Amino acid sequence: MATIYEARTMQDPEPNPGDTPYFEATADGRLLIKRCNSCGEVHFYPRAVCPYCQSADTQWVESGGRGEIYSFSITRKAGPIPYAIAFVTLDEGVAMMTNIVDCDLDTIRIGQRVRVVFKPTEGGYVMPCFAPE
Amino acid sequence: MSIRDKACIAGVYEHPTRKAPDKSVAQIHAEAARGALADAGLSLADVDSYFCAGDAPGLGPLSMVEYMGLNVRHMDSTDTGGSSYIIHVSHAAQAIAAGKCDVALITLGGRTRSEGVSGAKVRNWGPNMPDVPYETPYGPLTLNQYAMVAMRHMHEFGTTSEQLAWIKVAASHHAQHNPDAMLKNVVTVEDVLNAPMVADPLHKLDCCVVSDGGGAIVVTRPEIAGSLNRPVVKVRGAGEAHKGLNAGRVDMTTSGAAWSGASAFAEAGVKPADIKYASIYDSFTITVLVQLEDLGFCNKGEGGRFVADGGLISGSGHLPFNTDGGGLCNNHPANRGGVTKVIEAVRQLRGEAHQMVQVPNCDLALAQGTGGSLATRHGSATLILERG
Ligand SMILES: [Zn+2]
Q1: ipTM for the predicted complex
Q2: Overall domain count for chain B
Q3: What are chain A's domains?
Q4: Hey, are the CB atoms on B148 and A74 less than 8 Å from each other?
Q5: Helices (H), chain B
Q6: For residues A107-121, b (16+ Cβ closer than 10 Å) or e, as one string?
Q7: Cys staple from B11: which of A109, B54, B177, B218, with CB 3.0 to 4.6 Å?
Q8: How far does the CA of residue B53 sit from the closest CA of chain A (Å)?
Q9: pLDDT tens, position by position, for chain B (388 residues)?
Q10: Residue B375: inside a domain
């Protein structure tokens, strides 16, 4: 059995104020996370106010875009085509929701090493997804 | 201040409908309210406080108090998804203990089945949500979020699809005796495993039903409950918790039940082994397994062995659960199962469950709920109830 990845129509992210740098970076092929200049902790999803210390001095930093799959599920029946939703733990230490792409979805495993790739949404935004290394 | 022994559940009602395209949501709420008040032997005029959550139309209490003709001095619209109504019992007990009200009415109602709303569709909770830009494009469904919890649990602890299937099997053994249940056929482990895979590793039969329906609960002070011609069910302890993604330090295999359960057991002064019957929120089979572990009915990672081989079947298993058939087989009104969890626990404590599933000498019961998404962010509520 094989379930080869097919491009899925992704909904737009509908960014809130403050999210713009993240999506400008993804359009440029870069993945950003947030680090707090006050306490030094990184966090995801990105916030304007640090969830560890309440500092407003949070900074966008570029992720190396590599990590490993924390968990995943292949949605078989609910969408028009199968797709793999996942959480990937970045090497920087934070996990993010994503899709696993560009592979046979039936071969995806927890702990698998992955690297970021970028896929467009229906309205022209770009979302970070991950493919096996 | 503790709420232990400060309040009682005097009335409950589960709306018998499972498909109600011709009823309004407000009507379902009002019919459930009428049923619960009749069960208690109280009237509309006795109600002085009202509790509802996100399934109530409009501005919640403002819409429903007016529709139902209530006159209240206390309102609460805490919304923690499907666990809301378990939290409402706790909040009602707190309000009663604080002297803010005497008779609290909690209602739920919805037409999720008629409206085609299910966990297999992307939910839209409105604008300004901070997580949406980083999640919604990836197609998160209630279904695949809970599936990721199951996948991780299998990875960490060796839990199997067969073990998860036993949870559905147990629910179906109970549902066969419930004439209102949506799924009345007893199923086997093989039936669950042979059902289509909807989101790995969850099969179609690992999921709850989608039903229209509703329910209501009446909470009152012990003096009033004792004056009514109904068995007394006392609120002995309660806890609530929030669990999220922890800013990226994700741990999917522990739910908020670890904290809401600990709070409830501490307040009640009892331990898991004392519980004779447990209503455990069953949006999916994995939901039950994780909550059982977090409540302390077994150790973390041992849930699979705990539920296997009929462990949850009333009469033969070590912990009878969801004897109405639960959300897995009976009813999941408004995609929110908290109210029916409380209702079946009350039936058990009164000795009013179906005779084929009634737990003998049921003097202590637990109702546990989660709401939202187990994988990302959810509320958890634990309620410990005692026969008066
Ligand atoms: Zn900080």
Answers
A1: 0.98
A2: 1
A3: 20-132 (2.40.50.840)
A4: no
A5: 25-40, 61-68, 84-97, 112-115, 142-157, 161-175, 189-194, 222-227, 257-268, 285-295, 303-307, 338-350
A6: ebebebebebbbbeb
A7: B218
A8: 26
A9: 899 999 999 999 999 999 999 999 999 999 999 999 999 999 999 999 999 999 999 999 999 999 999 999 999 999 999 999 999 999 999 999 999 999 999 999 999 999 998 888 777 778 899 999 999 999 999 999 999 999 999 999 999 999 999 999 999 999 999 999 999 999 999 999 999 999 999 999 999 999 999 999 999 999 999 999 999 999 999 999 999 999 999 999 999 999 999 999 999 999 999 999 999 999 999 999 999 999 999 999 999 999 999 999 999 999 999 999 999 999 999 999 999 999 999 999 999 999 999 999 999 999 999 999 999 999 999 999 999 9
A10: yes
CATH number at residue B376: 3.40.47.10
Closest to A118 in 3D by CA, of A20, A18, A23, A1? A23
Put simply, the answer to whether A78 touches B197 (Cβ < 8 Å) is: no
Q: How is residue A53 written in tokens?
A: 């210390």
Instruction: Pull the structure tokens for residue B26.
Output: 């407000």
Domain assignment of residue B85, yes or no? yes
Q: How far apart are the first and last CA of chain B?
A: 21
Q: Is residue B151 part of a domain?
A: no
Tell which of B129, B134, B142, B157 to mutate to test the A interface (max A CBs under 10 Å). B134
* Secondary structure (DSSP) of B353-375: S-TTTPPTT--EEEEEEEEE-SS
| Centroid of ligand 1 to alpha carbon of B247 (angstroms) | 11
Structure tokens at A87: 């959480």
B248 near B338, Cβ under 8 Å?
Answer: no
CA-closest candidate to residue B202, choices A71, A73, A98, A110 = A73
Do B375 and A93 lie within an 8 Å CB cutoff? no
- What domain range includes position B79? 8-116+207-387
3-state secondary structure of B81: coil
Tell me, letter by letter, the H, E, C secondary structure of B12-49: EEECCCCCCCCCCHHHHHHHHHHHHHHHHCCCHHHCCE
Q: Is the pTM value of this prediction over 0.95?
A: yes
Q: Which of residues 101-130 of A touch B (CB under 8 A)?
A: 110-111, 121, 125, 127, 129
